[in-house]
Amino acid sequence: MAAPSAPRPPRPRKEPQPLIIPRSAAEEQRLRLERLMRNPEKTVPIPEKLNEWAPRPPPEFVRDVMGSSAGAGSGEFHVYRHLRRREYQRQDFMDAMAEKQRLDEEFQKKLERNKMIAEEQTAKRRRKRQKLKEKKLQAKKNKLEQKKQEKEPDQSQERVSSEDDEEDSKEEEEKEDDAEEPSFVMGRG
Question: Cβ-count burial of 165 within 10 angstroms (0-12 exposed, 13-18 middle, 19+ buried)?
């Protein structure tokens, strides 16, 4: 018999965990997360995606060709039935894959169409913001010119009337534009 060497140190005892029965799916998920977070260094097994089932390809060379000759044994029907079932299964699989591919293509087209619509809306709003910005700058320039004219009242009034005509024509062009009028005015308070 082997001589007892130094006694082993006792194993650390685990704390007994209270038994908690989850009453809902959310509570069950919370319990699982708590258990995972007790030891964050421990790796978590993540299952890999299972490969999709695919039927066996049809044989390239069929050895037992069934003919319509008389004298087929009683066991041949079961062989035929099995081959027929397998062929129908293969055809159903091919139909399902074609349908899935068609749906994927439709989804990609729909995504592309939605993306184009969103880009058009963004461009339209960008043009609208730019117009408002230009209009604001023009109003600011007009205001500065007006102040200059008030300081120099002896200048002719003809110049002012021509500027007003230009401003009126610009406002008419903006009203004819299909962009909506802003529901608020920025910079005034």
Answer: exposed
DSSP structural state of residue 39: S
Per residue in 60-80, pLDDT (tens digit) is: 887 766 665 656 677 778 888
DSSP 3-state of 90: helix
Is the whole model's pTM more than 0.70, yes or no?
no
| 58 touches 90 (CB < 8 A) | yes
Residues 91-110: b if buried by 16+ CB within 10 A, e if exposed:
eeeeeeeeeeeeeeeeeeee
Residue 132 phi, psi dihedral angles, 5° rounding: -60, -40
Could you tell me how many residues make up the chain? 189
What would the pLDDT profile of 118-135 be if each residue is shown by its tens digit? Answer: 999 999 999 999 999 999
Q: Hey, what are 34's tokens?
A: 């708590």
Cite the DSSP H helix spans in the chain: 25-38, 76-151, 158-176
